[in-house]
Amino acid sequence: MKAIVQTKYGSPETLHFKEVEKPKPGKNEVLVKIHATAINDYDWSMVRGKPNMYRLLFGLVKPKYPTPGMELAGKIEALGPDVTSFNVGDEVYGDISDYGFGTFAEYISINEKALVAKPASMTFQEATSIPHAAMLASQSLIDFGKIEVGQRILINGAGGGVGTLGLQIAKVFDAHVTGVDTGDKLEMMKALGFDKVIDFKEQDFTQCGKLYDIVLDAKSNRPVSHYLRCLSPNGKYLTVGGQLIRLLQITLSATFISAFSKKSVKVISLKANKDLDFINRLFEEGKIKPVIDGPYQMEEIPRLINYFGMGKHKGKVAVSIQ
After folding, report:
1. Are strands 196-199 and 264-267 parallel, antiparallel or unpaired?
2. Is 250 in a helix, a strand, or coil?
3. Alpha carbon distances (Å) from 9 to 49, 50, 61, 100
4. DSSP SS3 for 294
5. Which of 176, 191, 197, 248 has the most CB within a 10 Å radius?
6. How do residues 163-205 score in pLDDT, each as one tens digit?
7. What torsion, rounded to 10 degrees, do the Cα atoms 315, 111, 17, 130 define?
């Protein structure tokens, strides 16, 4: 089978196509023919081995996982002897990062717990664009944000996967949603339904005097004190990614902030695939639909990782595996 392989850390150009052995499923694993995958921040970090702290996860000297990729949608071709959740021919999708990586390939053997059934109405490209970003958005807004009807929400980095799906989840609660991003993404965001759009190159949302009940941040590129001043008295600041030094600052300051005010800050620790049944219902009811940049072809993955790293993508970067 064909796979994208990395043997050392470096620029995405060090990735290469390679013929590798088709895997066989272990006792709790399913063999999946991958029809679509997506590009994520983990891929950008894993390929480069940066920030260096991530090498504790991905391998100190060289990559632990020769093939990157953490989201997939596909069809089950074989079962391990102890598999109970699926049958051959089932269409599945999911974020597999709790069990490994390797979706930039034609096939993968992965623990059955890494996957859920794909609704028949959902295309493979739509399915691969949902699990990681939708879970970050859902767990931020609902599980930790405790979003309520009519609240004022701001999403920073709103033109990517988390932002575009976060908007649609917030609109289930009739929230007023402001999106922050720049460039070509702004028109897409207006068309998608953001109530207000801010170009961060023109305006700093932390200095505009507006207060928000929830700030969902995919960038985390400011001191935590800047975010606090745009929160309502009971507001919550929730981050799903960004600069490592900022994430550490937010984590260390969380207890102090909650002790001296009713505001709260939190770095979201993702529980992969936890609420996909909820997301599936919203999809089938027509309340959410992922914004897809693509789909592109497998041989374009090295270029697409660079494209993702530059922040130029709209929604999720999806790749068809043929």
Report:
1. unpaired
2. helix
3. 5, 9, 8, 18
4. strand
5. 197
6. 999 999 999 999 999 999 999 999 999 999 999 999 999 999 9
7. -10
